[in-house]
Design goal:
Layout lengths: L7 E3 L2 E3 L3 E3 L9 H9 L3 E5 L17 H20 L4 E7 L5 H10 L4 E5 L6 H4 L7 E6 L2 H15 L6 E4 L6 E3 L12 H16 L5 E4 L5 H9 L4 E4 L13 H8 L6 E5 L5 E5 L2 H8 L17 H5 L5 H9 L23 H9 L7
Parallel strand pairs: 3-11, 4-5, 5-6, 6-7, 7-8, 8-10, 10-11
Antiparallel strand pairs: 1-2, 9-13, 12-13
Helix pairs in contact: 1-2, 2-3
The structure holds flavin mononucleotide (FMN).
Amino acid sequence: MTGVLSPLRIGKYIARYPIVQGAMAVRVSGANLAGSVANAGGIGVIASLGLGLSSPYFDQRKRGSFFRANRLALIDELAKVRQISPDGIIGVNILVATRDYQMLAQTAAAQGANLIVTGAGLPLSLPEYTANYPDVALVPSVSNLHSAQLICQTWQRQYNRLPDALIVENCQFVGGHFTECDRVNLPGFSIGSVISQLRHYCQQQLGVNIPLIITGGISDRTDIERMLAMGADGVQIGTRFITTEECDADRRYKEYHLNARVEDIVTVPSPVGKMTRALRNSFAQEVIDGSLSQEQGCIANCLEKCLYRDTGKTYCILQALAKAAHGDVENGLIFSGANVRYTERIMSIAELMAEFTQPCTIPV
Ligand SMILES: Cc1cc2nc3c(=O)[nH]c(=O)nc-3n(C[C@H](O)[C@H](O)[C@H](O)COP(=O)(O)O)c2cc1C
């Protein structure tokens, strides 16, 4: 049973509520969504992947134009978010697997992001990239103890620093790319056990309390309470924020999510070499069936390793995600967490955050 949610401290920042809005690529979580969540007392996160794609800076005919466009579009997005939320806590999510990861991390830190949240890889050199901005909190995403140990040991040895928080992915539910899916069916696997292992490691071996933030499948206050009762300090929520007025994606994308049912969740291979969790549509079905034909080749050379660029297999993830987010919901890839049961209507962030945070007495 509980009443009021406790604040969440990450580095030098204290969020009124222990709720982080998950990054959603290709401007599904842009300045509008992130700024609104931050204004409502959570932590808003701008996804950096593909920001440049639909910006005026991108010219597909020019080599390297995409990376320049991404950097300039991130600067614009951070300026915009500060207009929406001058004092809110704002993070930028950067994927380690992208070729402009270092440049985007430096740009985010220099342009006033409070947090850098990483995904898709181990950010072993991140403290070096942000060394001139010690106030920027560094928050890697991990799915198991081993990844956390590698990051902590490397950062301690090389930079005398530890993560300011860890996002802990629940591979059974998380939207988009997920790791460790082969461990899901092992007897004994549970997000609770990963949290206990991480807590034990931080306290016993590092001698610190690193905030642990669970992500994946969290859709309402009951889910939040369950994660906190399991030992998490906070939650990161992605999919549930899509069906809001403030989400930066096209209305048709939001409505597709709105109408999704649990049986519409599929797992689709990605050019990154991992599985992704998404909603069933023509695109996902064709990838699953192996019948997808791609008209355009690689447009941006965005990933360090890309099956599509390097072998012609799978598809261009940037174009697939962008198509869907711009409203072509049958021919693009629609990432989604596995827990879609609560999306009944498109609501405002103020309303949704109130639903998440109002004092309550819920048996957990
Ligand atoms: C549409 C969508 C796009 C996503 N894009 C990113 C991304 O760019 N970077 C990242 O680290 N995680 C990404 N994720 C994962 C989310 O940040 C978050 O961890 C996940 O959605 C949590 O699970 P939930 O959707 O069940 O709440 C994405 C998820 C979705 C649904």
